[in-house]
Amino acid sequence: MKITPEQAADVNMMLATFKSFEEQLYNLKGLHGHMTKKYFNELLRVAQRYEKAVKKSEEAVNDTVLDILYNAITEAIYYVRTEATKNYEGTNNGEGHNRPIPSEGDKPKE
């Protein structure tokens, strides 16, 4: 099946998001009790099987584009995580704090 460039971009974006999701799951490894850990491991296995199936069946997957998208998504997630952690630490267990999420212009220069 021939797909459009927009569809190819969507496939790569979905896979990059999935890879980043998988990394976030690994960050939580060991945090949960027995039953939650079971669900966690099941979710991780399903994510890995899904990624493998899509990569095998889709001609649209471009590893270079996938890596670029994955890095951008993951970088954004970690930036927001850092800001959320700062906001959480500055409150009474995260309650009652309404600091706005910084805009792109507020992001520190690298």
Molecular structure report:
There is one protein chain. The chain is mostly helical and 110 residues long. It has one domain (5-88). Helix content is 67%, strand content 0%. The chain is built from three helices and no strands. α1 (5-27) runs antiparallel to α2 (34-57). The chain is flat, with a radius of gyration of 18 Å.
Helix content: 55-70%
Oligomer: single chain
How much of the sequence lies in strands comes to: under 5%
List the helices and strands in order.
HHH
Structural class: mainly alpha
Gyration radius from CA atoms, angstroms: 18 Å
Structural topology:
Blueprint: H1 5-27, H2 34-57, H3 63-89
Helix pairs in contact: 1-2, 1-3
List the main descriptive attributes of the protein structure presented here.
single chain, mainly alpha, 3 helices, 0% strand
Brief overview, please?
By secondary structure, this protein is mainly α. Helices cover 67% and strands 0% of the residues.
